[in-house]
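Researcher: Next entry in the queue.
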Amino acid sequence: MKVEIWSDIVCPFCYIGKRKFEKALEKFPAREQVEIVWRSFQLDPGMKVIPGQTVHQYLAERKGVSLEKGKEMNAYMTNVAKEVGLEYNFNIAIINNTLDAHRLLHLAKKKDVQNELKEKLFAAYYTEGKDIADHQVLISIGERAGLEAEEIRQMLSGDEYLDKVKYDQHVAEEIGASGVPFYVFNNKYAVSGAQAPEVFEEVLNKVWQEESPLITTGETGNSCTPDGICN
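Model: Structure for this entry, 231 residues:
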């Protein structure tokens, strides 16, 4: 089974959704046969960095609310994250463009360590206060996920995987993913948002039952074929 997940590193519900999906996956009997693919989705692809701007200020300006309201929204999200065992430290978070982080995720997919990298990127931004647009930071995170430093450095120095990031964003628009996280199961069923684990469990089981071949048990009994042969 293939599960494609559109998300952005700076989407707080995307990290929360990852934990909820993982909880559902733990209970899924065929979890070893589930392939997870992280697709690119930039919430603010044209973002320009404003030196010294805090995440609270960025959110307030983007939402058109007061700074105090922005802080309240982040405080609420911090509490939601705690419910699934995550620690959000918005006071030290560094807001930046996520394009290069998404390009790195495509390199990680090629090397079969995409899920490991995604987890480390989320933790770097939400918990550790790392600048996930800084190339040295990305190289360090990538190495910890199992990638080679020189390969990351070469990728970041050019425009490799830029087309794949744009393609993922285009596909999201085509399938109606106006927000993230957005999950697609075997190109057939979609789940929008950080739903409860039970929702993911239901979809996983439904897709598995529909896609799995029938298994014939016991010896073959007497039967007749369409051409009239019975035995």
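Model: The chain has a mean pLDDT of 92.
Researcher: Noted, moving on.
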